[in-house]
From TrEMBL, chain A:
GO molecular function: ATPase activator activity; double-stranded DNA binding
Protein name per UniProt: General transcription factor IIH subunit 4
Keywords: DNA damage, DNA repair, Nucleus, Transcription, Transcription regulation
Annotated organism of origin: Drosophila pseudoobscura pseudoobscura
Entry's Gene Ontology BP terms: nucleotide-excision repair; transcription by RNA polymerase II
Superkingdom per UniProt: Eukaryota
Subunit structure: Component of the 7-subunit TFIIH core complex composed of XPB/ERCC3, XPD/ERCC2, GTF2H1, GTF2H2, GTF2H3, GTF2H4 and GTF2H5, which is active in NER. The core complex associates with the 3-subunit CDK-activating kinase (CAK) module composed of CCNH/cyclin H, CDK7 and MNAT1 to form the 10-subunit holoenzyme (holo-TFIIH) active in transcription.
Statement: the UniProt record of this protein carries the keyword Transport: no
GO cellular component, as recorded: transcription factor TFIIH core complex; transcription factor TFIIH holo complex
PANTHER family listed in its UniProt record: GENERAL TRANSCRIPTION FACTOR IIH SUBUNIT 4 (PTHR13152:SF0), TFIIH, POLYPEPTIDE 4 (PTHR13152)
Family: Belongs to the TFB2 family.
UniProtKB/TrEMBL annotation, chain B:
One of the GO biological process terms: regulation of DNA-templated transcription
Name listed for the protein in its UniProt record: General transcription factor IIH subunit 3
Organism whose genome encodes this protein: Drosophila pseudoobscura pseudoobscura (Fruit fly)
Keywords: DNA damage, DNA repair, Metal-binding, Nucleus, Transcription, Transcription regulation, Zinc, Zinc-finger
GO cellular component terms, semicolon-separated: transcription factor TFIIH core complex; transcription factor TFIIH holo complex
Gene3D superfamilies associated with the record: von Willebrand factor, type A domain
Length: 496, 298
């Protein structure tokens, strides 16, 4: 019997791992990075240091930091010596040590501060001198003026905020229309977008070339359409910056200019005087996407629009005051009822196309589209890689103003009927009924005893996934495989 | 852990409104000692206000000056927008705060009536104005957006118990609206404001050295009240909860309380001055009681 052990080879590593992988990894989804993630993944310590020479970038970085980290920075901003680490630790409450560690590591990752040794053998934190200088300058002044702030004589025909808003939205919609292909069909020149913009869309995987050498929208592209405008602009700009260096344009300069625009005042004109040719072409691109308004290409004056303001901040959009809200009034057009019906007051093919991604469209009138959210239509969207969260946030973002006046909407956070929101989430959850665990199958045990011993051992170290006594089969977690194998070898040697 | 995280993201996304009430009364002890001090305080306050604005894009700031004769808004001034271009690398919004506050305060000080003898500042009135401003903004906030508001009082004035009633009304209103009141005392310990801070879970700090004022402000008052429990801040001092009497405005330990409106008096009076209730004379009652007691003992 002893010989039989080796012969039967107790474990057959039926490589469940290989077959599982494609199931676990869904097709690539749209990855939206915030600014902090972008800096962490794309930049090294040296390039970060270069970026910190630009005060607008520092301000943007500062606002992206965790709350606790911002307090730390402010407290050592005006301290000229390095501050011992123990002192910094003593500033935070014991109970929140974890949060504090996160904050400190975030600051180190972004190279905002670094460890230095101070006399007495203690290690201390020291702010990056460039970062410190730039932030102080932002806060208190006392440096060179930012570019584009040259004084201009008064504009004879100043543009008001309402005009800038409508201009920005119409420009941005051009890009979106192009993506769903509605722009081209109309055939007007105004709807076309520049080859540079197309290149960015291709680079970002939002669109791809198909076999007939045309350009079609990708799955990521559809997900992109579901984002709110601010997130769209930010994602698009990040992709744009990616292509910066290929075109030989300095990334820090572009980034600095982008943030400078984002910190500018709406409705005020700025000067493009003194910009080099690269920045001027960058400005022209921004003009095309609607981030700035410029009357003529050569005019040395431009107005930033709402799209450019606070590009990094996710929350700023939701916290607009009433007056701002009125300006963006046209954004709400969808009414969702508790019976899953969706009424969209729109005639834009783009909005209908997006809505059609996750609703079953029933009727179409000149200014109204009626659809219904069904299990099938939502599941189809989910299969396409769109998440329930994205659907809900889209409906919420473009909810008709009247939806927000319903009493239940005022009391709760969302203005959508809770039943619909829950159901969409449930439809998503029912697709996630499987949890995948990588494992190794053990079978062909020769005796019941062997099987029971090994199973009990696996159970005792908590690596057993599944077992069946009748067929003498068991599955062990992958990381426990080595342990169980070792135990089996020992057992079979000793016992056999 | 999760609800805490959710709470922290919520505070991150809300609007933080900070209203600074700055005592600009020229008869403050520290200002009379050295007029330069006021400039120094002003610089610190502006830098502090800007540091608050720097935290988040959606943060809001208001600065109110409080003197012996009037209360004025220093910032924001929506009607008289200062036309300015950035000149020294300071963020535009911050320069706007600095320029507006300085300009406004300058014109207020120039136009202030001359005062013969030192007068007390109208702190309670200014704080009430701050509360009104906060509640007005609160009403304009879009649905679903949280706004956290707080008031920071900076003063070098003395205790002003003549405004006791107004102070108490302000404190309890603030408490009810969930507004935190912080106080930075520059000269003396102010027991009334200390009570107010305690009621509204704010911080009270007495700064003895003006040189480090900004650093103190940034340390103690910059963190939003919702995140203060994550930081180690100075422990709350022992608060003197004595009330001041309504007749002479003096702090008293034991006094008479009107049974109808709860007004406090240091001396007995037959008619309550606040609600005009008429009391029976307390004369014979205690005498009787004493006699009975004596009888029993005998």
């Amino acid at each position: 019997m002893a010989m039989a052990d080796t012969k039967s080879g107790r474990y057959a590593s039926a490589g469940s791992s290989n077959s599982v992988v494609p199931l676990v990894q869904g097709p690539a989804n749209l990855e939206c990075k915030d600014f902090q993630e972008y800096l962490r993944t794309r930049q090294t310590a040296e390039t970060l240091e270069k970026l910190y020479n630009y005060p607008p970038i520092c301000l943007a970085v500062f606002r992206e930091l965790p709350e606790l980290a911002r307090q730390f920075i402010i407290r050592i901003l005006f301290v000229d010596q390095p501050v011992p680490q123990a002192v910094v630790t003593s500033w935070g409450a014991q109970r929140f040590a974890k949060e504090q560690t996160e904050a400190t590591s975030c600051l180190s990752d972004l190279n905002v501060w670094r460890v230095t040794a101070i006399p007495g053998g203690l290690s201390a934190w020291e702010l990056s001198p460039t970062f410190k200088k730039s932030v102080r300058q932002v806060l208190l002044g006392g440096g060179k003026p930012w570019p584009m702030t040259n004084t201009l004589e008064k504009d004879s025909k100043p543009r008001d905020i309402a005009f800038l808003d409508s201009y920005a939205m119409s420009r941005w919609r051009c890009v979106l229309h192009y993506m769903v292909g509605t722009g081209n069909r109309n055939g007007t020149d105004a709807e076309a977008i520049s080859p540079d913009a197309v290149r960015i869309l291709l680079h970002a995987n939002l669109m791809k070339r198909d076999e007939r050498d045309g350009i079609t929208i990708t799955r990521q592209g559809f997900q992109f359409l579901l984002l709110d405008t601010r997130a769209q602009v930010w994602h698009f700009m990040l992709q744009y910056l990616d292509t910066c260096e290929e075109r030989g344009v300095s990334l820090p300069e572009c980034l600095s200019m982008l943030f400078q625009l984002s910190f500018s005042t709406l409705g005020r004109d700025y000067s493009s005087e003194g910009m080099n040719s690269q920045m001027l072409s960058f400005l022209q691109h921004l003009r095309e996407f609607g981030l700035v308004f410029q009357r003529k290409r050569k005019e040395g004056r431009f107005y930033p629009t709402r799209l450019a303001l606070n590009v990094t901040s996710k929350e700023a959009a939701t916290t607009m005051t009433v007056s701002d809200e009125e300006a963006m009034q046209d954004s709400g057009y969808i009414v969702v009822e508790t019976n899953y019906r969706v009424y969209a007051y729109t005639d834009s093919p783009l909005q209908v196309a997006v809505l059609g991604l996750f609703t079953e469209l029933l009727y179409r009138f000149p200014n109204l589209v009626v659809g219904v959210l069904t299990r099938d239509s939502v599941r189809q969207a989910l299969r396409g890689g769109i998440t329930a969260e994205q659907i809900v946030s889209y409906l919420q973002q473009y909810a008709h103003p009247n939806m927000k006046l319903v009493e239940s909407a005022i009391q709760s956070k969302s203005c959508l009927p809770p039943t619909v929101v829950d159901q969409i989430k449930l439809w998503e959850m029912e697709r996630n009924r499987f949890t995948y665990t990588e494992g190794v199958v053990y079978n062909q045990f020769l005796s019941q005893n062997d099987f029971v011993t090994l199973r009990d051992y696996a159970q005792s170290i908590h690596v057993l996934v599944w077992q069946n006594e009748r067929t003498r089969t068991m599955v062990v977690q992958k990381h426990g495989h080595d342990d169980v194998k070792r135990y089996w070898k020992k057992y079979s040697k000793g016992g056999g | 852990m999760e609800p805490e995280q959710a709470a922290s993201t919520e505070t991150e996304s809300g609007i933080d409104l900070l209203v600074i009430v700055l005592d600009t009364n020229p008869s403050q002890h520290i200002v009379r000692q050295n007029p330069q001090n006021l400039t120094q305080i002003l610089e610190a306050v502006i830098a502090f206000g800007n540091a608050h604005l720097m935290q988040k894009a959606q943060n809001k700031l208001a600065v109110i000056s409080c003197a012996h004769h009037a209360t004025n808004f220093l910032y924001p001034q929506p009607r008289r927008q200062v036309e300015l271009r950035q000149i020294d690398g300071q963020y535009e919004a911050f320069s706007l705060v600095e320029k507006t506050v300085k300009q406004q305060l300058g014109s207020i000080l120039m136009n202030a009536p001359r005062l013969g003898s030192p007068c007390e500042s109208l702190l309670a009135g200014s704080m009430a104005m701050a509360l009104c401003y906060i509640s007005r903004l609160q009403r304009n906030v879009a649905a679903g957006v949280k706004m956290h508001s707080r008031i920071l009082v900076l003063t070098g004035s003395n205790e002003c118990s003549s405004q006791y009633m107004t102070f108490m009304n302000v404190f309890f209103t603030a408490q009810k609206l969930g507004i935190t009141i912080d106080t930075c005392a520059l000269d003396k310990t102010l027991s009334l404001l200390q009570q107010g801070c305690d009621i509204t879970t704010g911080q009270f700090l007495k700064v003895t050295q003006l040189d480090g004022l900004l650093q103190y402000l940034l340390w103690v008052f910059l963190p939003a009240p919702q995140m203060r429990h994550k930081l180690v801040l100075p422990p709350p001092p022992k608060v003197d909860y004595r009330a001041s009497c309504f007749c002479h405005r003096e702090l008293i330990d034991i006094g008479y309380v009107c049974s109808v409106c709860l007004s406090v008096f240091c001396k007995y009076s037959p008619i309550c001055t606040t609600c005009h209730t008429i009391f029976k004379t307390p004369g014979p009652l205690p005498v009787k009681g004493k006699k009975k007691k004596k009888d029993k003992q005998m």
